[in-house]
Amino acid sequence: MKSFSALLVSLMVFLFTACAPKTLPSSNRTGDYNAYNEDLSEARPVYNNMGTRPGATTKTGSASSTGSASAESRKITNVGSAEALHINRKVDEQLTSIADKNRSLRYASGYRIQVYVGNERQQAEAAKLQVYQSFPELTAYLSYNQPTYKLKIGDFIRRMDAERYFGQIKQMMPSAMLQPDKIDVRRSLSIK
Q1: What pLDDT sits at residue 192?
Q2: What is the separation of C-alpha 158 from the centre of its chain, rounded to a whole number of angstroms?
Q3: What's the rounded Cα separation, in Å, for the pair 123 and 61?
Q4: Close Cβ partners of 68 (under 8 Å, ≥ 6 residues apart)
Q5: For residue 190, which of 125, 134, 135, 131 has the smallest C-alpha distance?
Q6: How far apart (Å, rounded) are the C-alpha atoms in residues 94 and 97?
Q7: Residue 121 has what pLDDT?
Q8: What's the pTM?
Q9: Best CA proximity match to 188, nearest among 168, 160, 167, 150
Q10: Would you state the pLDDT for residue 31?
């Protein structure tokens, strides 16, 4: 019984001390935040000088080797810049090859606005004329898959650009629909 009561007393002391309010140091919240200063030199990584020979003195060497230390540091800098130039040339070559490949692309996936679907060629041509009058910058594509004519307009890479025109076209032609399609990249670049 004594051990149980001793255990109960120690548990109560633990709970009271654990739940007791802690006194935290007051922070100066109205102070200058730019006055914060902390030395992080211990956490920074230290790199060995690359490009130096074993046993060569560096800038931290003795006072008598200051002349050779500056020559060594120039050599290290030159080696580093040569490596950087070599890497830059490789990156430039890759970027040039990517740009050439992108210039050769003719078609990409994008969006077009389907304006007319029906069996009447005259109605399709009338819709095409109406679109040309209202939006001369958009290209119209009339296709025929027996017995249906489809009129799609525009070459939009981004859906957001297509939706901008779609709102205006929907007011003119309520049956208009926005559809993903294969587009001509060069024509899409001419749309403003």
Answers
A1: 65
A2: 16
A3: 89
A4: 57
A5: 135
A6: 5
A7: 92
A8: 0.49
A9: 160
A10: 60
Cβ(135)–Cβ(165) under 8 Å?
yes
SS3 of residue 64 by DSSP: helix
Give just the sign of the alpha carbon dihedral 33, 37, 43, 44.
positive
Given the DSSP bridges, would you call strands 148-156 and 140-145 parallel, antiparallel or unpaired?
A: antiparallel
**DSSP code of residue 31:** S
Structure confidence at residue 61 (pLDDT): 44
pLDDT digits (tens, 9 = 90+) for 118-167: 999 999 999 999 999 999 988 999 999 999 999 999 999 889 989 999 99
The answer to whether 105 and 185 are in contact (CB under 8 A) is yes
Packed helices 121-134 and 159-172: angle between N→C axes, nearest 10 degrees = 110
Positions of the chain with pLDDT lower than 50, given as ranges: 56-76
Instruction: Say how far apart CA 117 and CA 141 lie, in whole Å.
Output: 12
Q: How many CA atoms lie within 13 A of 89 on its CB side?
A: 5
Q: How far apart are CA 162 and CA 151, in angstroms?
A: 15
* Cβ atoms of residues 37 and 11 within 8 Å: no
The tokens describing 128, both together, are 């095409």
Residue 70, pLDDT score = 46
Per DSSP, helices labelled H in the chain are: 2-19, 66-104, 121-134, 159-172, 185-189
Q: What single-letter DSSP state applies at residue 82? A: H
